[in-house]
Design brief:
Number of domains: 1
Distance between the termini: 37 Å
Number of strands: 5
Strand content: 5-15%
CATH class: Alpha Beta
CATH architecture: 3-Layer(aba) Sandwich
Largest sheet: 5 strands, parallel
Order of helices and strands: EHEHHEHEHEHHHH
Helix content: 25-40%
Radius of gyration: 18 Å
């Protein structure tokens, strides 16, 4: 059995029923993994690299992770909160140093780290075509610097998600994020139309698929974690749906 330990924030956290339909990528990612891969989701809502470490959560991973396991490291959203001293990290100094601490935990236990840049927020400009300039950019740059400095592998999900959101547009991408109609969810009776950060199940699946595809393209060892037949089947279903007006062969 191979284990992926996932350290991150709410975009990856495993949400309970009282937060449905909010879903983190790590929560749904086993839909794309090989049969012998298990995910230990240590991501927690609201955490930055600093607060994750300060609360002893990285220490827990250190105690549990073992040789041959993987540590996925995806932060940024909460490290940006400059007015919150418990979470903020300087992207040119602290953030890079903290990423190095995560990498060291993996390597000290002969596990394999993977840096993953944060998902882009779905914040469109007034033209509803282009996304606003992102607050993530200094932290994405820091990820690349950490990858260079610590010789660590990196997948740029910021770039992938930003391109996906802009390509598919404002209205069509709302379904992937926590946009909820009034009465649709018991704990949000008035609905919610302003959350462009947190994902629904559909978003966790879509961005999980994009991450899985990038891992498959990356090559060893990360491609071995992915069940490529699932990705191939999804491509086939999408093609079939396009040809048959939304009805794939297996549903006829």
């Amino acid at each position: 059995m191979r284990i992926i330990f996932w350290a991150g924030d709410s975009t990856n956290a495993c949400n309970k029923a009282n937060k449905y339909p909010q879903t983190g990528i790590a929560q749904a990612f086993d839909r794309f993994t090989a049969f012998d891969v298990v995910i230990y989701d240590h991501a927690v809502n609201g955490r930055s690299t600093k607060s994750f470490i300060d609360q002893g959560r990285l220490a827990v991973i250190y105690d549990e992770i073992r040789e041959g396991d993987y540590l996925f490291i995806q932060f940024g959203h909460n490290d940006e909160k400059i007015t919150d001293l418990a979470r903020y990290t300087d992207p040119e100094t602290d953030f890079i140093d903290n990423l190095g601490k995560f990498i060291s935990v993996a390597r000290n236990k002969k596990a394999i780290p993977l840096l993953i840049t944060p998902l882009e927020r779905r914040n469109f400009k007034d033209d509803h075509v282009h996304l606003e300039e992102s607050d993530h950019l200094p932290y994405v740059k820091a990820y690349y610097e950490a990858a260079r400095r610590f010789n660590a592998p990196l997948i740029d999900m910021y770039k992938v998600s930003r391109e996906f959101i802009e390509e598919h547009g404002d209205e069509p991408t709302k379904k992937y994020f926590m946009h909820v109609k009034p009465g649709e969810v018991f704990w949000l009776p008035a609905g919610l139309s302003t959350d462009n950060t947190h994902l629904k199940y559909e978003g966790a699946m879509m961005f999980g698929q994009l991450l899985a595809s990038k891992m498959a393209e990356y090559g060893a060892p990360f491609d071995t974690l992915i069940d490529k037949s699932v990705l191939n089947d999804l491509d086939s279903v999408y093609a079939s749906n396009a040809a048959d007006d939304g009805v794939a062969d297996e549903y006829k």
